[in-house]
From TrEMBL:
Region (Disordered): 309-328
Coiled coil: none
A Gene Ontology term for the protein's cellular component: nucleus
A GO term for molecular function: protein serine/threonine kinase activity
Native source organism of the sequence: Mycena indigotica
Pfam families tied to this protein: Pkinase
GO-annotated biological processes: mitotic G2 DNA damage checkpoint signaling
Domain Protein kinase: 20-290
Family statement: Belongs to the protein kinase superfamily.
Entry binding sites for ATP: K55
Stated name of the protein: non-specific serine/threonine protein kinase
Swiss-Prot/TrEMBL catalytic activity: L-seryl-[protein] + ATP = O-phospho-L-seryl-[protein] + ADP + H(+); L-threonyl-[protein] + ATP = O-phospho-L-threonyl-[protein] + ADP + H(+)
EC number(s) recorded for this UniProt protein: 2.7.11.1
């Protein structure tokens, strides 16, 4: 749970009975602040590394004690971030709880951004197997994470070992009636419980397995399969209409073998999804996660930046030169055009709402668009790739307060443009024929 009060700044303090010095802040969020700390009291404690991470959670409560117990129980596994202990800092009459953890410089988004997993099957298998081992270890101890995502999977720059972290939303009950986590990583049954009054429940273990499958998509494609697995999301709706081919169309780089595994993992029925052991066996036995690069006629867009906070947006760049244009387009090119159009990139909810105010073309993964012929989809992709109207804010010379922006100009959608063009094509011959007949009849011309 978020801290009930503003957390104090611990930089420069000597804490933990004079054993640690807080050097600098390295991370912050709604659930706490993370610092880098060093041992200063000699002889150094051999159980602790010289440099550790200190996570300040806030005022002691049921939630801080629960996170401590959950993380401590799971910390013995090598795929879980090491928990060394805790201490308290008094701020007036309030006790602030801090955890001493293993220090990691990066989360999983960093190697994804660097391209560590690009066309490297061994790297994908090694890292994802460690994630599955950590989740399996937690489930065997009766603990369910419920907030699995790349931001909560930490790693070192030189060590390929990845570790699970942040057990603030973990529970011991296998069935939960509250949905907690990040939208792209929540299963459809968890989201349906969140939209109801809380009377229904869902399997917390199945929700963790679903989140692991989404993380695997992040590692292979550096993108999300959808923003949320609800009927209001066009990508999820399109997947339900064509489960066998939607992911391979959206991600042209994935192999057919990997696509079949994802279809099983994203089955709307929780009982039909593979278990962690079955997923582990499928991952280790998979021949190739990626389609052969030469089979793609157009290079795949690469991620130039990855989100460091939940729900943050990606920025993609095309590896081709802007001056080169493909001569012919096939099904893989259509998918790439849809990716470069910008409407199916993972955006935050606020950014998506702001952008939808000025979006005049349906998204590329909308069921209506996917049902169109290939030529029409190509036309929509090209129209979508055109620059959108720029929003200009005007400022008064007398006052500092901003004036409301001008409303965007009225723009016809593709269907209206097509209808107008067809009417012109039909109307022109009819008008010419009527003029010719009127002149032959002796009536004056217009």
């Amino acid at each position: 749970m978020p801290a009930s009060r503003k957390l104090p700044n611990l930089t420069g303090l000597i804490v933990d009975c004079g054993r640690l010095r807080i050097d600098e802040q390295i991370g912050a969020g709604s659930f706490g602040t993370v610092y880098r700390a060093s041992q200063i009291r000699e002889p150094f404690d051999p159980r602790l590394p010289k440099t550790v991470a200190v996570k300040c959670l806030g005022e002691r409560s049921f939630y801080t004690d629960k996170e401590h117990s959950m993380h401590y129980v799971c910390s013995s596994h090598p795929s879980v971030l090491t928990f060394y202990g805790q201490f308290s800092v008094m701020e007036g009459n309030v006790e602030i709880v801090c955890f001493i953890l293993e220090l990691c410089k990066h989360n999983l988004w960093t190697p994804i951004t660097w391209g560590t997993f690009d066309y490297d099957n061994d790297a994908v298998k090694r890292a994802f197997s460690q994630i599955l081992d950590g989740v399996q270890s937690c489930h065997e101890r009766g603990i369910y994470h419920r907030d699995l995502k790349p931001e909560n999977v930490l790693c070192h720059s030189s060590d390929p070992q990845v570790m699970l972290a942040d057990f603030g939303m973990a529970i011991r009950n296998p069935n939960s009636n509250t949905a907690s986590g990040t939208l792209p990583y929540l299963s459809p049954e968890a989201l349906s419980v969140a939209l109801r009054d809380g009377s229904a429940t869902y399997s917390a273990a199945q929700n963790d397995i679903w989140a692991c499958a989404v993380i695997l998509v992040n590692m292979v494609t550096a993108r999300y399969p959808w923003r949320q697995a609800t009927s209001s999301d066009p990508a999820w709706s399109a997947f339900l209409l064509d489960q066998k081919h939607f992911l391979s169309r959206k991600f042209p780089i994935i192999s057919s073998e990997f696509n079949r595994l994802l279809v099983r993992c994203f089955n709307p029925e929780p009982a039909e999804r593979p278990s962690l052991a079955e997923m582990q066996a499928s991952i280790l036995g998979m021949h190739d996660f990626f389609r052969d690069p030469p089979s793609l006629s157009v290079p795949v867009a690469s991620a130039s930046s990855a989100p460091t906070t939940p729900g943050a947006s990606f920025s993609f760049e095309d590896s081709r030169s802007q001056s080169t244009k493909p001569s012919a387009l096939d099904s893989a090119d259509y998918s790439l055009l849809r990716e470069l159009a910008g409407d199916d990139k993972p955006l935050s909810v606020a950014s998506r709402q702001q952008e939808s105010k000025h979006s005049y073309i349906l998204p590329a993964d909308h069921p209506t668009v996917l049902a169109l012929p290939s030529a029409d989809q190509r036309l929509l992709a090209r129209l979508r790739a055109r620059p959108r109207p720029r929003i200009v804010r005007f400022w008064s010379t007398r006052h500092v307060t901003p004036i409301a922006p001008r409303p965007p100009p009225k723009v016809l959608n593709p269907a209206q443009r097509l209808c107008r063009w067809v009417c012109k094509q039909i109307k022109a011959p009819l008008v010419g024929r009527s003029l010719a007949s009127s002149r032959s009849a002796g009536s004056p011309g217009c």
